[in-house]
Amino acid sequence: MKNAYQETMFLLKKYHISANKSLGQNFLIHDEVIHQTVESATISKDDLIIEIGPGLGILTQELLERAKKVIAIELDNRMVAILQDRFSLYQNFELIAQDVLKVNLKEIVEREKRENGIKEVKVVANLPYYITTPIIMKLLEENLAIESITVMVQREVAQRLVAHPSEKLAGAITYSVQYYCTTKQIIDVPKESFLPAPEVESAVIQLTLRKEPPVQIQNKENFFKLIKVSFMQRRKTFLNGVSNSGLVSKQTLKEILTELNIPETIRGENLTLEQFAQIANRI
Ligand code: SAM
Predict the structure, then answer these.
(1) Which pLDDT value is given to residue 136?
(2) With a 6 A CB cut-off, is 204 part of the ligand 1 pocket?
(3) Which fold, 220-282?
């Protein structure tokens, strides 16, 4: 049996293709990383796995062996042709040849649960790095009935995604992710685990969706907007940054901070998720 590196070289040669950098194509060639990623997703025979960007199918093969069904979403038609060739004999494989950002995932998840006896839906992927954030936000904001998201991302992004609010590495996305999920870093992955090797280091992380949100918010839009604007002007105090944004007047925000016993000099990055929620609920 070929290892992942040999398999990748074989497929690239057989189909006369090379990786398309602008589509974020860095193929996984390290068997141990593939194994650990799939293992960490704890896949059962009742699960539907949604794979984003299957590429040549190196992860897909492992997923097909373990899950009830795999739905793979791939934009590059060259990869689509290879995947159709490779997995045509698998009854549990479905391929969607489309930009993942345009796919109606809600409809797919609901249909699979209703018609195919799927118990849990999990996302497993080595993501195209140029659209990591939009993909993760789509998965979270569309309120999909999914259990977990196990993904390879750029290490710097991983650190932000798994940081805790008010930690140094926290950014606006940290708070959004914490609202929807609990997070875990699975493994660090060196550049050499990919072909071609990307310029950045990588990591596999896991986001487990919460059944209940950790804070009560009255207006989701206000809450996320408040977080966003307070990180857009990171060097300013929370009070100045947010009142410059037009979301709320400086006077009102001052009163809210006083009421909540939060110092006027605080920076957004030092607020907890709970405090963001309390402030947003008063705007
Ligand atoms: N899963 C493969 C692996 O681990 O070797 C390939 C991963 S590669 C990092 C990312 C894959 O995402 C590529 O196959 C690329 O063509 C695909 N891709 C890029 N943009 C996409 C999009 N908007 N929608 C779906 N797939 C996309």
Answers:
(1) 97
(2) no
(3) Helicase, Ruva Protein; domain 3 (1.10.8)
